Here is the input.
Amino acid sequence: MEPMPEEFLSRLCARLPHSQPKLAVFPSGAFMIDLTIKQEMHVIEYLPSLGFGVSRAATAVYGWEGVENAFTTTAEVEAYVTELAEGSSKKQESSQTKR
Here is the structure.
């Protein structure tokens, strides 16, 4: 079953309200979501034949070139980007508490 891009975007917005996600849907069923995690742009790609890829925008190229992390479900992607956001904030908190 194909993921619903709008539903997925809605869940990402709920989990990461400051990420400012932007959705692009393509006629092939593919879609891309750009989102900001701790001031770094990331790209979530979905290609029907390959699944999901999550990359930093600096390395992402539409298609499957430069994909840094591959996933098969929206739940895996949500967990990964949430951990990125929380991990980044935990690193910042620990560096602030060391001062």
In short: The first helix runs from residue 5 to 15. Helices lie at 5-15, 74-97. The mean pLDDT is 84. DSSP finds two helices and five strands in the chain.
